[in-house]
Amino acid sequence: MEYVAQQVINALSFGAEYALLALGLAIVFSVMGLVNFAHGEVIAVGGYTMVAFAALVTANPLIIIVGAVAATAMTSVALERVAFRPVRYADPTTGLLTAFGVSIVLQNLFLLFISPRPIAVTSLYFLDAPVMLFGVQISSLQIFESVTTVVVIVGLVLFLQKTTLGLAMRAASLDFEMVRLTGIRANRVFALAFLISGLLAGLASVFIMARRGSVDPHFGFNPVLKAFVACVVGGFGSLPGAVLGGFLLGAVEVAMLVLLPQDYGGLKDAFVFGIIALVLVWRPDGILSPAREKGDKQ
Amino acid sequence: MTLTQSQKRGFFGACMLAAILIAIGVVTTFFASNYQLRLVYSAFVNLIVVLGLQVFMGNSRLTNLSHSAFMGIGAYAAAICVTPVAMKQIALPDAPWGLNAFALDPVTSAIIALIVTGIVSLAVGVFIVRMTGTGATIASLAVLVIVHSIFLYRTDIFKGNQAFFGIPQVFSLTSIVILAVVVVFIVRGFRESPWGVMLRASADDETGAAAMGVNVRRLRLIAWVLSGLILATAGIAYAYFLGTISARPFYFNHVFLTLAMLIFGGMRTVTGAVLGTFAISFGLEIVRWLETGPKVIGINLPELLGLSGIMLGLVIVLTMALRPVGVMGDREIEEVFSKR
C-alpha cells in the first residue's frame, strides 16, 4: 500500500514538472504558432545563472533562485526580439526551423564560452530532503514541485481569465488579426507570452538543478523533449492539454519504471514514447486539440 | 511512355546535376590527397542523406528529424549481415539469434538492409503521416531518440558507442558517385511524377488537394518510405567505405548538419539539396580548421570548440529570416539557365 502511494506521488511530481515545462511551450505556441525548440536552452541559461550567482555573488538560495528566474525571463524575451520577430507571421515550419537553429547556436555558445563539462551547484541540495508524510516517505522536492505547478496553473488561469492582456492572449490564439484591430499592441502580446514562458522555464530550471546538481550545455534537452511529447499528446496549442499531457507522461514514465525489469532500464524512454505514440493513433492531433476543421482560418 | 513537359525538363535538370557530381568525382580522383578524398566521400554520403530528406520534406513540407536514425538502421543492418564470421565472433561475442554465425556477400547484405529499413520506415510512417505539421515533427524527434537508445542499449548487437569494426571496405569514390547520380535521378523523377506533383499540391493546400481526390496520407507514406530507403542506402555506403560504425554519427549532430544543408540550399528542389550539401560541406571544413586554433599570418588563434555548431545554427536562422525558401527557392537548375 505504501509502495503504491509512493509511486502515485512520484508520478504526480514527475507529471508536475512536465506540466510546468509543457506550459512554457504551449503558451508561446498558442499565441504565435511557434514550436520553441530553444526552450531547453533558456532553461540551461537558468542553470548557468545559478552557477554564476553561487560562485560570484552569494550562497543564499533564495537570491540564486530569483536570479535564475529573472535571467530566463529576460533571455526568453530577448530571443523573441532578436530571433523570432522576423518569422513572426511565417508558416509554422519556418518558425520551427528557426527555433531549431537558435537552439543549436545557444547550445554551442555554452560549449564555446563556458565549458563542455558539467558544472556543479551545491546550494540547492537542501530542496531535496526526505520527508515523512502520512507514513509515506517522499522528497521535499516533490512537494515543492507539485505546489509550484498548482500555484502556476491557478495564477495562469486567473491571469488569462481576469485581465485584459490575458483576454488578449486568449483571443490571440484564435484570431490574431482581430486582436490587433481592437487596438492591442501585437508586440506586447508576443513579449508577454515569451515572458511567461521564460518564467516557467526558470522555475523548471530550479527544480531540474535541485535534482541533477550540475549543468552542462545539454541541460535542457531531455526535459524539453519530454515537454514536447507532453504537448503533442495533450494537443499542441491547448494549455489544459499541456497540463494533461504532462501528467499523463509522468504517469506512464513511473509505470514503466515500476513495471519494466531492472535490466531494461536503458529502454525506458523508448517504451514511454512508444506508448505515447499509441495515444496519437487514437487522436492524431492530441487529446485536447482545439476543434478546428481543415481550411479554417488558422 | 510519353513524358510531360516538366518531366522532360526534370530529366534534363537531373542530367546537369549528374554532370556536376561526376565532375566533382573526377577532379577529386585525380587531384585530391587521401584526406581530401575522405572528405569528398563523406560529402557524397551526406548528399544522399539530404536527397533522401528532400524526397519527404521537400514534397510534403513536413519537417522530419529522424532521418539519421534510418541511416543508422541501414548501416547496422548491412554491417551485421556482411561482416565475416571470424570478425563478428570477436566484435559481437554475445549476439543473440545466431547473428554472429553467418556472413553474406555485400550485395545481398545491402538488399537485406534496404528491406529491413523499408519495413521499419513503413511501420513508423503509418503513425507519422496521420499527424499534422508540428505533431509529425515532434513524433519524428521521438523516433530518433527511440532508435538511438536501442542502439545504445543493445550493445550485444550494435556495440553502442563503441566501434562496430571489421566491415569489408568494398566501396570507393567511384561507387558513391554512381550511387549519388542514380539517387538524383530517382529523387527528381519522384518530384515530377504524378505522385510528387499531387503531394506538392497537398502541401500547398491540403483541403483543396483532398477535394480533388488526392489521398494525402497514402502519398506521404510513399514519400516517407522512399525517403527511408534512400537514407538506408546512404548508411550502407557509409559503412562499406569506412569499415567501422558506431551509434554516435547517427544522432543529433548529424541531424543538424544535414538539415542545415537542405534548408540552406532550399528544400523544395533537388538542385537546392545538391547545392546546400556541397556549400555547407566545404564551408564547414574551413570553420573546422579555424576551430582547431590555427596560426594565421603569425597570429595564434585560440581553440574554438563549438564554432562549427554556431555556424550551422546561424545558417539555419539567417536562411529562415532572410530567405525561408533557401537559396534555390522554387527553381531547379535548368530553370536558372533557361530564359523565362
TrEMBL record, chain A:
Keyword terms, alphabetized: Amino-acid transport, Cell inner membrane, Cell membrane, Membrane, Transmembrane, Transmembrane helix, Transport
Q: Give the record's GO CC terms.
A: plasma membrane
Q: Does the keyword Signal apply?
A: no
**Pfam families documented for this protein:** BPD_transp_2
Q: What is its main location?
A: membrane
Note whether rRNA processing occurs among the keywords: no
In what way does this protein cross or attach to the membrane? Multi-pass membrane protein
> What is any one GO biological process for this UniProt entry?
L-isoleucine import across plasma membrane
**What family is it from?**
Belongs to the binding-protein-dependent transport system permease family. LivHM subfamily.
Name of the featured protein = Branched-chain amino acid ABC transporter permease
From TrEMBL, chain B:
List cellular component terms (GO).
Answer: plasma membrane
Q: What CDD domains does this protein map onto?
A: TM_PBP1_LivM_like
Keywords for this protein:
Cell membrane, Membrane, Transmembrane, Transmembrane helix
Topology term for the membrane: Multi-pass membrane protein
Molecular function (Gene Ontology), one example:
branched-chain amino acid transmembrane transporter activity
Q: Which domain of life is it from?
A: Bacteria
- Keyword ATP-binding, does the record have it? no
Looking up InterPro entries in the UniProt record yields: ABC_transp_permease, LivM-like
Protein name, please?
Branched-chain amino acid ABC transporter permease
**Gene source species:** Pseudaestuariivita atlantica
